[in-house]
Specification:
The protein has 19 helices and 19 strands. It has 498 residues and is an alpha/beta fold. The structure holds cobalamin and iron/sulfur cluster. One of its GO terms (molecular function) is catalytic activity.
């Protein structure tokens, strides 16, 4: 039996915001593939990532597409002659790419079983199964479930796997209800991602061309690593619980050493993005991993681009992060207004702790980025402005680079449910930026203050580049080495229109 796991191409222009594609190996698929292979089932596993050729085209809807076109993707899939095609979708904003691929695969290969997985379909399995092309949806973590699904096909049984839904089950699912699923209790039991099934050097090459897995980290042989899954906090905008749950499950230090050693020695990785949702939830465990990073020679740079909490830091911990090769931390602040943080976001974060972290990072010259969100239902325009002022002030004074976004109500989140319940979506239900209208604000008002923020941010960026030696040389190096990527990123930042 031949199994082909696919990552579709991606849209580049999203609701008026053009993003520079950020591409890393499809970690979810590599984990699913690794588990299937380790099961010893008699099947051949292949991985196809449609993004790797890095070509831009325009499709019939006028959308800019990055990677193989849909037709090229189908031709590639046909050549593999798969019995099962597994499609991954990481983002709701890209779901139509996955659905389109499923449709074209089914048309071209009607006997092939089409399976889909990832965060969006985990929340909306009915939506996916309503499409004739999709046979099964794997909910949540795919490693065990996909292996069991394949086992059933190999053994000629009708699949009945916990967390996998097919056409027959969907009929019995009440609309908008998804089955409850279990999470893998011991993630150390999982094999390492099957990196050998993709050409990692092709991804390093993409990073050299300005398509790194993360913003501005161009040119590195960087890899995305996850040391834990799930988060016990209950931030109302965060969608991670739908796929990974509330229980914090983590890899042991031994597992992480094995993983990091493989990446460094076998693939020459020189930079690690720790993409955990809550890397520092157990600070002592984080200390152990970072302690190991500091023993590596040559030093391996690292960062936390997915954000860490602002209340798990001590002065000593920041100092050690810097010494161990950390290039920057990203702190998830969300709002500078305690009422919004406590009553709307449910972040349970004391801003005083964040202020300490900012000061310590400044003291040890460790770059700090910060996430903020404005536009929550219940928030006022004044409160949004307070967050904007805070973000710009900490950028100007301490160099804390702000990544401030207007709310995207992600499916499966409490905020999405609240917005639906109270009718805060202006027109139709969409999962894009700045769609909410309440008694306190309209999307137009939010857009206005957001655009003012962007210009002020740009001015501070220019000022800092001219007055900070470090920023000047850092930015000069990027412009000199990656002129195209810099122009593209700058143009996109300025043209954001939502
Ligand atoms: C790294 C990352 C990125 C990187 C991706 C770089 C890359 N690798 O190419 C970048 C920076 C580009 C990014 C961008 C965005 N991201 Co992001 N990102 C992540 C992050 C932190 C890690 C992804 C990852 O590798 N996970 C690890 C693997 C193991 O998990 P997984 O992919 O979900 O796969 C598992 C299951 O889903 C399932 N599965 C997945 N696919 C398949 C397929 C089959 C066939 C099967 C059987 C199973 C299966 O099995 C896997 C193993 O258990 C996740 C959070 C998270 N913890 O997952 C957010 C996350 C995916 N991102 C999210 C969002 C919202 C975004 C943005 C929209 C943010 C923004 N405002 O711009 C953009 C979208 C960009 C775009 N392309 O359109 C949300 C998605 C929610 C949603 N419903 O859309 C997440 C879940 C974060 C969150 N807490 O809400 N992101
Ligand atoms: S935003 Fe961070 S702290 Fe909050 S629930 Fe999500 S992962 Fe946990």
């Amino acid at each position: 039996m031949k199994v082909l796991l696919c990552h579709p191409n991606q849209k580049v222009s999203l609701e008026g915001m053009k993003g520079r594609p950020m591409v890393g190996p499809p970690l979810g698929l590599l984990l699913v593939a690794g588990h299937l292979r380790a099961s010893g089932l008699p099947c051949e596993v292949e991985v196809y990532d449609a993004r790797v050729n890095a070509v831009f085209t325009t499709n019939e809807k006028g959308e800019t597409i990055f990677g193989d076109t849909d037709l090229e993707s189908v031709e590639r899939i046909k050549r593999a002659r798969p019995d099962i095609v597994g499609i991954s979708n990481m983002f709701t904003v890209q779901i139509d790419r996955a659905y389109t691929l499923a449709k074209l695969v089914k048309e071209a290969l009607p006997d092939t079983i089409v399976v889909i997985g990832g965060p969006h379909v985990t929340v909306f399995p009915q939506e996916a199964l309503a499409l004739p092309a999709i046979d099964y949806v794997v909910l949540g973590e795919g490693e065990h479930r996909f292996t069991e699904l394949v086992r059933a096909f190999i053994e000629g049984r009708t699949p009945a796997v916990e967390g996998v839904v097919g056409k027959t089950q969907v009929i019995s699912l009440p609309t908008h209800k998804k089955p409850t699923i279990k999470y893998i209790p011991d993630i150390d039991q999982l094999p390492l991602p099957a990196y050998d099934l993709v050409d990692l050097h092709a991804y390093f090459d993409l990073a050299r061309r300005g398509y790194s897995p993360r913003y501005r980290e161009w040119g590195k042989r960087a890899m995305t690593v996850i040391t834990s899954r799930g988060c016990p906090h209950t931030c109302t905008f965060c969608s991670i619980h739908a796929t990974m749950g509330y229980k914090y499950r983590f890899h042991s230090l031994e597992y992480m050493k094995r993983h990091i050693d493989l990446l460094v020695t076998q693939y020459g990785v020189d930079f690690i993005h720790f993409e955990d949702d809550n890397l520092t939830h157990m600070p002592e465990r984080y200390d152990e991993i970072i302690g190991y990073m500091s023993t590596l020679r040559p030093k391996i740079g690292w960062d936390t681009p997915n954000g860490v909490r602002g209340d798990s830091w001590t002065r000593e911990r920041i100092k050690k992060a810097k010494e161990s090769g950390c290039q920057f931390l990203t702190v998830a602040i969300e709002s500078a207004v305690p009422r919004v943080l406590n009553e709307i976001v449910h972040k349970r974060l004391e801003l005083a702790r964040v202020e300490e972290m900012i000061r310590w990072c400044h003291e040890f010259n460790l770059r700090l980025h910060a996430f903020y969100i404005i536009g929550f239902p219940g928030e006022t325009l004044e409160e949004m402005q307070t967050t904007i002022d805070f973000a710009l002030d900490r950028y100007r004074r301490y160099g804390v680079t702000p990544f401030l976004q207007t709310l995207i109500p992600l499916p499966g989140t409490p905020i999405h449910r609240i917005i639906l319940k109270f009718g805060f979506f202006k027109d139709k239900i969409e999962t894009k930026h700045n769609q909410v209208t309440t008694d306190d604000f309209t999307p137009e008002q939010v857009r206005k203050i957001y655009r003012e923020y962007l210009w002020k941010r740009l001015a501070i960026f220019a000022l800092r580049t001219l007055t900070s030696r470090h920023d000047f040389f850092y930015n000069l190096r990027l412009v000199a080495k990656y002129p195209k990527a810099v122009v593209h990123a700058a143009r996109n930042a300025i043209s954001a229109s939502w």
